Amino acid sequence: MENQQRNFGTWQLTSIMISSMIGVGILIIPRTATKLLHQMGWLGPIAGVLIASVAVAAIVYLGNQFPGSTFVEFMPRIFGGAIGTLCVFLFILYQFLNAGITARLFGEVVVTSVLPQTPLEVIIITLLLLVMFLCCHEIEVVARINELLIPFLLFPSLLIPLVSFMNADWYNLLPFQVESWKQVMKTGLNTYTLYTGYELLMVYFAFAIPGARLGMASVTGMSFALVVYLITVVAGITVFGYEELQRLVWPTLELVKVTQRTGWFLERFESAFLAIWVASVFTTIGNMLYATIFSLRRWFRKGIRFQRITAIVIMVPLFFLTLVPQNIVELFSYTQHLTAVGFLITIIIPILLAITQFMRNQFNKGREVNNEKGGT
Amino acid sequence: MSSLNQFFQAWQKRKEALQSKGLDQHSNKSMESVSDVTLTTNVEENIQLIQAQFGKCDDLVVRRFQTKSKAQAAIVFIDGMVDRNVISDFIIRYMTTPDITYQDPATNELDLTDKLRQIVRNILSGCAVLIIDGCQNAYLNNTRGWDRRSVEEPQTESVVRGPRDGFCETLCVNAALIRFRLKDPNLRVRHMVVGERTQTDIYVMYIDGIAYPPMVEEVIARIESVHLDSVLESGYIEQMIQDRRWSPFPQIQNTERPDKVVANLLEGKIGILVDGTPFGLIAPAVFSQFYQSPEDYYERFYIATLIRFIRIISISIALLLPSLYIAFSSFHPEMIPSRLVIAMAAGRSTVPFPSLIEALFMELAIEILREASVRLPGPIGPTIGIVGALVVGEAAVTAGLVSPVMVIIVAVTTIGSFASPSYSAAIAIRMLRFPVMILAGMFGLYGIMLFLIVILIHLSSLKSFGVPYMSPLSPLNLNGMKDLFLRAPHHLMKRRPMMFHVQDKIRIREEDNPK
C-alpha cells in the first residue's frame, strides 16, 4: 500500500481498544445485567468478558499470524476467495450498522436529558460530521486521538460510580446466591455486546509497531473495561436496587443525577457528564466508521482521496439509517437484532478463522517435517 | 468512481504543470537584469559598467583617486551602508601613502572577483568595491557598518529570572549571541539567501551530532524552495516552510531570546535566523511551546511545575471561559449552584440580549481595546487601556447592557490569554475562542466538546518536520513526559527528548556525576 507505516504502540492499541469498547453501552448496562440475574447482576459483565475474551484471544492470534495485514487481506487468505469476501462484506456492513445504532442511541440520550429543545437530527448530524472529519485523516491520527481522549473516558467512567457509592445501600447486593447458571449464560450472551469494539483490532493490529505486545494491549483493555462495567453495575444495584433499575431507561445517567450532594462547585453533573461522554461516544463511532471506510479503501486498494470521498458519501445513507427506528422501544429491539448478527461476526468468525489458521499451521508443520524426512 | 478519479488525476496534473511553470518564471528576477559580464582593465569603463546597473542612483558613491604606484583607482559603495572610517583610513590611506609597502587594502574581509553580478550584489550588501586601473579583478572589501539597534531586553518574552539580552535586527550579532552561549565547535551555521529582491541573508543553525541530519536537510531544502520576492521578517519564512499552511497553530516556534534558541538547539532542534528581524525561528515545534518558558528551567522545579500548571489553566480559561458561561447560562442553568444562579439572574435581568450576543459584544469590545492599546503611543497606552476597560465596563453594567458576571469573565479571559509565554501561540487560542462561543451558543456543553474534539483531531494530525505536534503526549513517550507538564529536576533529565530523533541521546553522563 502507500506509505502507511506500522507505528501504533502498545499503549495506543490499548487506548483504541478501551475507547472502542466503552461507549453508549455503559449507559444501559445496569439494567440489562440485572434483568435476569436480579441482585447478582454484577455477574453479567464477568460472564460477558469470558465470552468476549475467547474471541479476543483468537484475534490476537490472528494479529500475530498476519502482521501488517487487516482482516480484508487475511480473511480471503484463510477462508478462500468466496467465503472470505463474504465475511469481509458482512464485517464491514456490521460495523456500519453498529455505528449507526450507536449514533442514534447517543442522540436519544442527549435529546432526552440535556438538550430537550434540540431536534434529534441535529445531534446526529453534528456527531456524524465530527466522525467524517476524523475519517478524512490518515490512520495514525485515529491512534493519536484515542490516546488523547482516554483521560476524558477514564475520569467520568471511574469517578461517577465511585462517587455514587455515597448513596449506596449495600444490602441491595444480598442475597448472595445464583438461582440458575443458565440465566448467567443468557445474560453473558447479552452483556458481551458491551465489549464489542474489540473486533476492530482486526484492522488496527495491522499497524502495530513490530514488537508491540498485542496480547498485553488486549488484556489491559479488557480488564479495564471489565472493571468499569463491574463497578457501574454494582453502583446501579446498590443505589437503586434491581427492581427500580428495570424501570430506568438510562440507569447510569440516573446514577449521575442522584450524585448531587457532593457540595462541589457544580450543583448537578449530568450535563457535564454527557458533554465529556461525547468524547467516548465519538471514539467508539469514530473507530467503527473509520474501520469501515478504511477497510473499504484497503479492499479496493485505493488511496486517501478515495477514503475522503467515501467518508463524505457514506454519511448520507448512515444518517438516514439512524432515523429508521421510530422510537426508543423500536431502537432497543433493533439493537437486540444486531446483537444476534454481531454474535456471528464478532465471536464465531474470529474463532473459526483462528481455528482454521491453527489447523493449517499444524498441517503445514506436519508436511514440512515430512518433507525434511524426504517426502511422504 | 473511476471517472471521478480520472478527473482528479487530470486536475492534479494541471496543478503540477502550473506549479512547475511558475517555478521557471521565478529564479532570481532582480539579479537577472544585471548582465553577467566580466570587468575590463580600464577603470572608467568599469565604473560605467557598474553605474549602468544602478541607473541614476544618487546614493551610489564613486570616489576616484591615484594609488601610490600612480595608477587610477576608484572606490564604489553605497552611502550609509558602509563604515566611512574604514574606507578612508584603511583603504584610501593604505593605497595612497607611499610609506606603506603593503599592496592590498587592510580590511578584515577581502575578496577578488571580476564578475559584475557578484560585484553588484556585494555593493548592495554594504561592501566597498575597489577598482584599479590595469587590474581586471576588483577588490571586495567588507566595510559593512550601518546604524543598528543595540542588544536590548526582549519585548514579548520577558522573564523574571534569566538573561536580559534579546536578538536585534542584525544577523551576525544574533548569531554571535548564540555562539557566545554555546561554545561548541559542533555548532553549524549554514548561510542562505532568500528573496529575489530583498536578498535576505538567513542562517540555519544546528548542532552536528545532536540534530537529526535528515531533518536538517529537510529544513534547508524547504528554505531553498521558498520563492518570494521579499523576506522582511522571519514570519515570511515561517509561513512558507511550515507543514500545513492552513492550520491556525504555529508549527514553527519564534523567539526573541538567544537562551531559548540555545536550549532548543541542545534538544536537537534547528534554529533559523533571518537578517533584519529580532525574531528567530525554531523548528520543529510541538504543542508544549504554548505554555513553556525558558524561565521554567532557571527556577527550582517545584515552582516551575506549578507555574506550568497555572499557564495551562490560564490558556484553558482563555479558550473556554466565555463559552462555558454561554453554555451554562443558556442551556444548563441547573448546573450552577442555586445561590449563584439567583445572583446571576438578577444581574442579567436588565440585559436585553441573549448571553451569546452579550459575550460576543464584550469580547469584541475587549479585542478592540487591546488592539488599540498596542497602537497607542507609549505613555498613554496603559492609561487608555485602564480608562477604557474600567469606564466602559462599569458604564455598560450600569446601563444594563451587560451583566456584571460577563465583565468578570471577559476580564479573566483576557488576562488568561496573556499568561502564555508565546505570543503567536496565544493569538491562535484568542482566535479559536470565537467559534467555540458560537458553538456553545448553539449546542451548549455538547457544542464545546464537539469543537474541542475537532481541535484535538486537527492537532493530532499536525506534524512539524515529521514530529507529531502533540508528542510526547501522543504518541506517548514516558521519558518526554518529564518535561511536558512537569519540569523534572535537572539531574533526572539525563536523556534528551526522543521525539526529535536526537543523535546524541544522553544529556548528562553517569560517569561525570559520581554520587
CATH architecture of chain A: Up-down Bundle
Q: Biggest interface pair, residues each?
A: A-B, 40 and 32 residues
Whole-number mean pLDDT of chain A: 87
Give helix and strand order of chain A, one letter per element, not per position. HHHHHHHHHHHHHHH
Subunit arrangement of the protein: heterodimer
CATH C-level of chain A: Mainly Alpha
Compute the number of strand runs of chain A. Answer: 0
Count of extended strands of chain B? 12
Summarize the main sheet of chain B: 5 strands, antiparallel
* Mean pLDDT value of chain B: 86
What is the strand arrangement across the widest sheet of chain B? 1-2-4-5-3
Keywords (chain A): Germination, Membrane, Transmembrane, Transmembrane helix, Transport
Organism (chain A): Brevibacillus porteri
Family (chain A): Belongs to the amino acid-polyamine-organocation (APC) superfamily. Spore germination protein (SGP) (TC 2.A.3.9) family.
Main location (chain A): membrane
Blueprint (SSEs and pairs):
The complex is a heterodimer of chains A (376) and B (515).
Chain A: H1 10-21, H2 29-37, H3 43-65, H4 71-79, H5 81-113, H6 120-135, H7 139-164, H8 181-191, H9 201-204, H10 214-240, H11 242-245, H12 251-258, H13 270-300, H14 304-322, H15 328-373
Helix pairs in contact in A: 1-7, 1-10, 1-13, 2-8, 2-10, 3-8, 3-10, 3-15, 4-5, 5-6, 5-13, 5-14, 5-15, 6-13, 6-14, 7-10, 7-13, 13-14
Chain B: H1 2-25, H2 29-32, H3 43-54, E1 60-66, E2 72-78, H4 84-96, E3 110-113, H5 116-124, E4 127-132, E5 138-142, H6 171-181, E6 187-194, E7 200-207, H7 213-224, H8 234-241, E8 253-255, H9 258-266, E9 270-274, E10 280-283, H10 301-330, H11 338-348, H12 355-375, H13 380-398, H14 404-418, H15 423-443, H16 445-461, E11 463-464, E12 467-468
Antiparallel strand pairs in B: 1-2, 2-4, 3-5, 4-5, 6-7, 7-9, 8-10, 9-10, 11-12
Helix pairs in contact in B: 6-9, 10-14, 10-15, 12-13, 12-14, 12-15, 15-16
